[in-house]
């Protein structure tokens, strides 16, 4: 058994919160250097995304070694270098974006305004070109710009985190409108977990059962939809069916038994 995992679960968990906080502080310090040393533009945003990916990998790697997180994300290697791609994922936890960012160096995420405006993590997201989620009309421009810069645009179309064990909720149509406008393919990303940690209503400091097990798989890869209403509606319905199928009880049992 690795040395870190021989320590009691409560000590490992609360220590991991401190370590992760330190990683985020270093992340912000690095992006501060970028803002001071480089002019705003595509190159600075690209460097900030690489830095964010590096620090996310550091955090996720530590959580693995400490026995806090057991995450199978091998499927993401097949899309890590694809560009001009819209990613749509279900959203069971606040850890989702951290896990995906650790494997996808070109990812830009549409994030809640409350996170985008935070003094700590928010400054990094702004520097990396992440998109603030306001209304659909306000996100289409920045989201389209990220695709023009050959990024992968990640959206959580449910609009909020789900509650542990709950069915996926109805999805919002914004991702389809962006894909239609930019003629971008759409890749479904399915995040499976039985851990309730940081799902909707779960307190940050409350320790969950450890390790927290995650499995990330790829759903269908849809070709860029045409710009007519029927194509957009068909894409939205297809993605919603993918989410609902993956949130069925038997899928949760499959994950528990892996």
From TrEMBL:
Start and end residues of each Phospholipid/glycerol acyltransferase domain: 85-194
Pfam family, one: Acyltransferase
InterPro entries: Plipid/glycerol_acylTrfase
Organism: Acetobacter okinawensis
Transmembrane helix among keywords: yes
SUPFAM superfamilies: Glycerol-3-phosphate (1)-acyltransferase
Transmembrane segments: 12-37
Entry keywords, A to Z: Acyltransferase, Membrane, Transferase, Transmembrane, Transmembrane helix
Molecular function terms, GO-annotated: 1-acylglycerol-3-phosphate O-acyltransferase activity
The name this protein goes by in its record: Glycerol acyltransferase
One of the GO biological process terms: phosphatidic acid biosynthetic process
Top-level taxon: Bacteria
Alphabetical list of SMART domains matching this protein: PlsC (SM00563)
């Amino acid at each position: 058994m690795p040395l870190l995992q021989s320590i009691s679960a409560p000590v490992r968990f609360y220590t991991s919160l401190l370590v992760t906080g330190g990683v985020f502080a270093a992340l912000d310090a690095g992006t501060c250097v970028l803002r001071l040393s480089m002019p705003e533009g595509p190159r600075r945003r690209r460097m900030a995304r690489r830095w964010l990916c590096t620090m996310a990998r550091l955090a996720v790697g530590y959580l693995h070694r400490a026995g806090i997180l057991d995450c199978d994300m091998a499927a993401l290697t097949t899309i890590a270098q694809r560009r001009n791609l819209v990613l749509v994922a279900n959203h069971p936890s606040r850890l989702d974006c951290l896990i995906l960012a650790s494997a996808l160096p070109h990812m830009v995420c549409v994030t809640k305004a409350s996170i985008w405006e935070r003094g700590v993590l928010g400054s990094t997201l702004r520097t990396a070109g992440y998109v603030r989620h306001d209304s659909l009309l306000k996100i289409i421009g920045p989201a389209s710009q990220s695709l023009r810069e050959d990024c992968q645009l990640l959206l959580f179309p449910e609009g909020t985190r789900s509650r542990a064990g709950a069915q996926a909720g109805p999805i919002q149509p914004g991702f389809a409108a962006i894909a239609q406008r930019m003629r971008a393919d759409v890749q479904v990303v399915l995040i499976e977990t039985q851990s309730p940690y940081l799902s909707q209503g779960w307190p940050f400091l409350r320790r969950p059962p450890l390790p927290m097990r995650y499995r990330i798989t790829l759903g269908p890869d849809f070709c860029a939809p045409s710009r007519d209403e029927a194509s957009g509606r068909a894409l939205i319905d297809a993605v919603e069916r993918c989410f609902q199928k993956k949130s069925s009880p038997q899928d949760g049992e499959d994950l528990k038994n892996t």
